[in-house]
Specification:
Elements: H1 4-7, H2 9-19, H3 25-38, E1 41-43, E2 55-57, H4 59-78, E3 83-86, H5 95-99, H6 102-105, E4 107-112, E5 119-121, E6 144-147, E7 150-153, E8 163-166, H7 171-176, H8 178-185, E9 191-200, E10 215-225, H9 230-248, E11 256-260, E12 272-280, E13 283-294, H10 296-305, E14 311-312, E15 319-320, E16 323-330, H11 331-342, E17 343-346, E18 349-352, E19 363-367, H12 373-387, E20 392-394, H13 400-410, E21 414-418, H14 420-425, E22 427-432, E23 438-442, H15 446-454
Parallel strand pairs: 3-9, 19-20, 19-21
Antiparallel strand pairs: 1-2, 4-5, 4-6, 7-8, 9-10, 10-16, 11-12, 12-13, 13-16, 14-15, 17-18, 21-22, 22-23
The chain binds glycyl-adenosine-5'-phosphate.
The site of glycyl-adenosine-5'-phosphate has 20 residues, from strand 10, strand 13, strand 16 and helix 11.
């Protein structure tokens, strides 16, 4: 959460060192290489030599990411009666960031190497050790505060009056739009506002693939409650977040750690924060966060804007600033956790055992041979029919073994092969990604069979 970046200091360094598990860079390298090879994630602007720590999602990565976002939206917005969604602008009135405290507080502690002038997060370098970039020893500056919001200018004149910022979190729009949302949705407390969208932070040392980037996506909920009930709702959202991680993303429970963030490391607005850390391949690091933001945000935006942002109880007429519980999820860290959790090497193959509901393709269709028009015709028909219901891949290159190999690496749960028997008997082979078992299924029962399996 925001505050953990504000305090830094020795305690934090010790915590990070303690959390460093045996480095497994090989496995991360393998995942990065697979991600590029199969079209999950590419280095951005690669034809121009890339841009440090900037990544693009390729065709299957976009599907995986969208499936995560859609599952989240369905679970936390559409299937509930108490949460509504918004999609706000990325560049907001700069006064928002004054009132929220970001202009003053959204800082990283950095040190600079006086020789090569590279900057590092103070918590991530040992000041007594050589500079990780140029190897010079004893050249680090004292730690300095560095505001990590991205600055830009509105209009053509680059002057102070025109300064604006790319939003560093999606959360503030939910507070700034509180009054409008309340009046159109007519929700009563407790209720929430949700948003999925991009956030930007000028991170000093991004890294570890898509774990820490300067442009990323968040899925956030601001849940408005009565102050006296905060503990009850904090506990409720804690359980919801566990449920999302272990049931929806199917992450292994033993890789998730709940850290109660101590007061001196919490954000300026938070009275209690839990970080959910995941055992990424480079150590235990924050995956998601949960904070009790008190009534800090609405109160400050009311003070700064002059608009009444109180909630009026319809029954007793009492007016008050709602308090807020904020569960927050990073989309890109979700993708990375799912990739790590699902990566397996077994039986001479690499397989991504992605939960079927999240897998980019639900099935792939192959004609046994690419030069037999009768097989192609039937396989194409099956492919076209299935595509009405599921996102399905087509592959007629190379031999069947190679096609299985590539679908396993993408994480496609089922591969369907149309062979000569299919022409006679009207059935196909369906091969299960995880067990590699094959069964014959009637073509006219195929869609229902897959639907049932994918439930
Ligand atoms: N509104 C609260 C807030 O923004 P945060 O802990 O700073 O809290 C929330 O960010 C989530 O956003 C994190 O738990 C993480 O998943 C994700 N996140 C934060 N910074 C990120 C970065 N530089 N790159 C990728 N994801 C990031």
């Amino acid at each position: 959460m925001v505050g953990s970046r504000l305090v830094g200091g020795r305690r934090r360094i010790i915590k990070i060192l303690r959390n460093m598990k045996k480095d497994t860079p090989d496995l991360l390298e393998k995942i990065v290489s697979l991600a590029k090879r199969r079209g999950f994630v590419f280095p951005s602007s690669e034809i121009y030599g890339g841009l440090a720590n900037t990544w693009d999602y390729g065709p299957v990565g976009t599907e995986l990411k969208n499936n995560i976002k859609q599952l989240w939206w369905k679970r936390f917005v559409q299937s509930r009666d108490d949460i509504v969604g918004i999609d706000a602008a990325l560049i907001m009135n700069p006064k928002v960031w004054e009132a929220s405290g970001h202009l003053e507080n959204f800082n990283d502690l950095l040190v600079e190497c006086k020789k090569c002038h590279n900057r590092f997060r103070a918590e991530q370098v040992d000041l007594q050790a050589p500079c990780p970039q140029c190897g010079e020893k004893g050249k680090f500056t004292d730690p300095l505060q560095f505001n990590i919001m991205f600055k830009t200018f509105i209009g053509s004149a680059e002057e102070k009056a025109n300064v604006a910022y790319l939003r560093p979190e999606t959360a503030q729009a939910m507070f700034v739009d509180f009054k409008n949302v309340l009046s159109v949705s007519r929700k009563q407390i407790p209720f929430g506002i949700a948003q999925i969208g991009r956030a930007f932070r000028n991170e000093i040392t991004p890294g570890h693939f898509i774990f820490r980037t300067r442009e990323f996506e968040q899925m956030e909920i601001e849940y408005f409650i009565r102050g006296e009930e905060w503990e009850k709702y904090f506990e409720y959202w804690r359980k919801e977040m566990w449920d999302w991680m272990t049931r929806d993303l199917e992450l292994d429970k033993k890789d998730i750690y709940e850290i109660d963030v101590p007061e001196n490391e919490r954000a300026h607005y938070s009275k209690r924060t839990i970080d959910f850390e995941y055992d990424f391949l480079f150590g235990k690091r924050e995956l998601y966060g949960l904070a009790y933001r008190t009534d800090f945000d609405l109160k400050n935006h009311e003070k700064a804007s002059g608009e009444n942002l109180k909630y009026k109880d319809p029954e007793i007429g009492e007016e008050f600033w709602p308090h807020v519980i904020e569960p927050t999820w990073g989309v890109d860290r979700s993708v990375l956790a799912v990739l790590i959790n699902s990566y397996c090497e077994e039986d001479g193959r690499v397989v991504l055992k992605i939960p079927p509901r999240l897998a980019p393709f639900k099935a792939a269709v192959f004609p046994l041979l690419a030069n037999k028009p009768e097989l192609i015709k039937l396989a194409r028909k099956i492919y076209d029919d299935l595509r009405q219901k599921f996102y399905v891949a087509w592959d007629d290159r190379g031999n069947i073994g190679k096609r299985y190999y590539s679908q396993d690496e993408i994480g496609t749960p089922y591969c369907i092969t149309v062979d000569f028997e299919s022409l006679e008997k009207g059935d196909v082979t369906v091969r299960d990604r995880d067990t590699m078992k094959q069964e014959r299924i009637k073509i006219d029962e195929l869609a229902a069979h897959l639907e049932n399996k994918l439930k």
